[in-house]
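Consider the tokenized backbone below.
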């Protein structure tokens, strides 16, 4: 059987490895990190068929510009005179329109629903990662946000998703874990959640059973070619022969693609999270605090808060206290009983979401390098979309018809 090399052992690389190995491929994974703390680990763990509208949408440019002048805002583009950023910005502008959103909705919905089904299959065999289907509450405090949320919910209903519109009193009936200070909420019944670190632990154990070779702390540096085909992968730990390559390097994908002569526009969207243990009063339903764009997820007995999106570069590893304070303020505003203090830096996690300017992931066979497949650019939905991505990658590598249409997931 062919040997498939996967570059990147985040959730996308691991799920791709799982379905490839199940199909009978010999699979090897390379990751430059220790594979225990990257973007796939500290995220909010939400599986979100509700998120069918991509980040590139009408109104986002104007909103983004307003937010750029607020140091605690949830979205920020670090201004730099850099050609990658300018190219990304122009592409984002090109995609932020109703026509793109209309085409994106069914594509994201189908990918998301397939992914959720696959998570259900995993959860049936093993519940070590606390998979739960409680839906997602979009909580809001202002009439303006309510109008935006209603518009999105109507789109979701048109796409066939089940949505409940709740008053403040109805929110209190659904959210029994703690007091909420909101104008109302929208309950997407389609959504689920899990504990990311525990899921990654589970999938790594499955890969070991499937005899997948995992190489942490191994940086892929270059490629050797023969007639538009990668024959060898050059790493800092040696050179490895390969038949197929899957590029799943998240925010680092552009520099590796460049070595292959392919331009991929992805910028890291830095976000933070912190996880609290043993809180007496805590939300019981995964929620998004809409005005602050803060994600709140119960994970077994823990509670995780995540937020902010700073479009930046991968060398930017500083924790921006103002933005973290913005998250803390939102939590205390929405959940007055919780009284959350600013977390210490050592307890604050950050990750780089691999953001494409279209807001769509890239799941495709390269046209230039015959044995290369892309599995990257999942931005804020990588956990949600990982199993479906892994399944599609396996179908693409095997030359089979894909389970869902991939035409919206091209470069
Ligand atoms: C605050 C926050 C909250 C989030 N919440 C959610 C959520 O609720 N639901 C959801 O669906 N998504 C969420 N996300 C997004 C999700 O975490 C990402 O989309 C996902 O982790 C991306 O996975 P990945 O495998 O593509 O990338 P990564 O996890 O970044 O993996 C890429 C891997 O490639 C490796 N790599 C890079 N270059 C090389 C090289 N040269 N050689 C070897 N290895 C290399 C890296 O070390 C890395 O481990 C959130 C993100 C953040 C920051």
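A designed sequence for it:
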């Amino acid at each position: 059987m062919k040997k498939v090399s996967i570059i990147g052992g985040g959730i996308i690389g691991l799920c791709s490895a799982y379905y490839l190995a199940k199909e009978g491929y010999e699979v090897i994974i390379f990751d430059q990190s220790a594979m225990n703390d990257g973007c796939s680990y500290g995220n909010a763990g939400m599986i979100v068929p509700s998120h069918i509208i991509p980040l590139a949408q009408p109104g986002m440019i104007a909103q983004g510009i307003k937010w750029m002048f607020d140091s605690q805002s949830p979205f920020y583009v670090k201004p730099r005179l850099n050609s990658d950023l300018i190219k990304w910005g122009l592409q984002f502008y090109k995609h932020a329109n109703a026509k793109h959103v209309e085409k994106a909705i069914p594509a994201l919905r189908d990918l998301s629903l397939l992914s959720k089904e696959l998570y259900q299959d995993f959860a049936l065999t093993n519940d070590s990662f606390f998979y739960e289907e409680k839906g997602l509450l979009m909580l809001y405090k202002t009439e303006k946000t309510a109008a935006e949320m209603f518009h999105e919910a109507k789109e979701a209903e048109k796409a066939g998703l089940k949505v409940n519109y709740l008053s403040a009193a109805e929110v209190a009936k659904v959210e029994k874990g703690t007091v909420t200070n909101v104008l109302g909420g929208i309950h997407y019944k389609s959504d689920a959640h899990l504990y990311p670190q525990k899921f990654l632990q589970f999938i790594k154990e499955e890969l070991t059973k499937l005899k997948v070779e995992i190489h942490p702390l191994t940086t892929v540096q270059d490629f050797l070619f023969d007639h538009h085909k990668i024959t060898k992968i050059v790493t800092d730990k040696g050179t490895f022969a390969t038949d197929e390559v899957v590029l799943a390097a998240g925010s680092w994908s552009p520099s590796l693609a460049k070595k292959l002569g392919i331009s991929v526009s992805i910028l890291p969207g830095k976000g933070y999270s912190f996880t609290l243990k043993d809180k007496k009063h805590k939300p019981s339903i995964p929620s998004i605090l809409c005005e602050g764009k803060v994600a709140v997820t119960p994970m077994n007995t823990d509670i995780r808060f995540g937020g902010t999106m700073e479009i930046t570069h991968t060398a930017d590893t500083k924790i921006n206290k103002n933005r973290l304070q913005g998250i803390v303020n939102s939590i205390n505003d929405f959940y007055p009983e919780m009284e959350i203090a600013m977390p210490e830096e050592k307890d604050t996690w950050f990750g780089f979401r691999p953001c494409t300017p279209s807001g769509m992931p890239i799941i495709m066979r390269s046209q230039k390098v015959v044995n290369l497949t892309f599995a990257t650019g999942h931005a804020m939905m990588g956990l949600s979309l990982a199993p479906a991505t892994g399944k599609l990658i396996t179908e693409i590598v095997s030359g089979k018809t894909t389970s869902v249409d991939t035409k919206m997931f091209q470069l």
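Residues 245 and 372 are 5 Å apart (CA to CA).
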